[in-house]
Amino acid sequence: MRRRPLVVRDDRIDFFRGQDGAGCLREAQQSIDERVIRLEDGAVSTSGDYRDFFESAGVRYSHTIDPRSGRPVAHGLASVTVLRPTAAEADGIATALTVLGPVEGYELAERLGWAALFIERTPDGFRHRETGAFKQAAQTRESGP
């Protein structure tokens, strides 16, 4: 049985097929980061407050709630992108890592060998941190066969 991709498209994600028939994914997060990753099998998901947030009295509030406190997450992560075998895994892990934050989330992803890209807001701009598994997966998928 041939597997066919299910693609959700909005202003952040484009899926297209190259001349060799392999799928590619382009993800751009409001000019924070843009890259093209070859995606032949598996799934990708991004969680974060780069799009869904509100500000009140100069404070940015994320739409993601930390279940430990019952309050919006309060750290500088703009997004976490995760590559996993299934969309359900990628989505759940991306959200969990977003809740955990840039330090605890990154350490967990690295320890468990998850492919994850963390983009954090800093006073000097955006900071990108890729887990070893993400670096390897992105390099392999960008170069192709």
Give the helix tally.
Answer: 2
Share of residues in helices: 25-40%
Query: Class in CATH?
Result: Alpha Beta
Mean pLDDT: 76
* Termini separation: 23 Å
Instruction: Please indicate the count of domains.
Output: 1
Determine Rg (CA atoms, Å): 16 Å
CATH superfamily membership, which one?
Answer: ApbE-like domains
Number of strands: 11
Please report which band the strand proportion falls in: under 5%, 5-15%, 15-25%, 25-35%, 35-45% or over 45%.
35-45%
Secondary-structure element string: EEEEEEEEEHEEH
Which architecture does the CATH hierarchy give at level 2? Roll
Shape: globular
Can you summarize the main beta sheet? 4 strands, antiparallel
Biggest sheet: strands side by side, in what order?
4-9-10-11
Which regions contain 5 or more consecutive residues with pLDDT less than 50?
A: 1-32
**CATH topology (fold) name:** T-fold
Q: Structural class of the helices, strands and pairings?
A: alpha+beta
Report on the architecture of this protein:
The chain has 145 residues and is α+β, with helices and mostly antiparallel strands. It has a single domain, classed as T-fold (Roll), CATH 3.10.520. It has 2 helices and 11 strands; from the N terminus they run E-E-E-E-E-E-E-E-E-H-E-E-H. It has helices at residues 87-112, 132-143, and strands at 13-17, 23-28, 34-38, 43-48, 53-56, 59-62, 65-66, 71-72, 77-84, 115-122, 125-130. Strands 4-9-10-11 form a 4-stranded antiparallel beta sheet. Strand 5 (53-56) and strand 6 form a beta hairpin. The radius of gyration is 16 Å and the shape is globular. The two termini are 23 Å apart. The relative contact order is 0.16. Mean pLDDT is 76; it is low at 1-32.
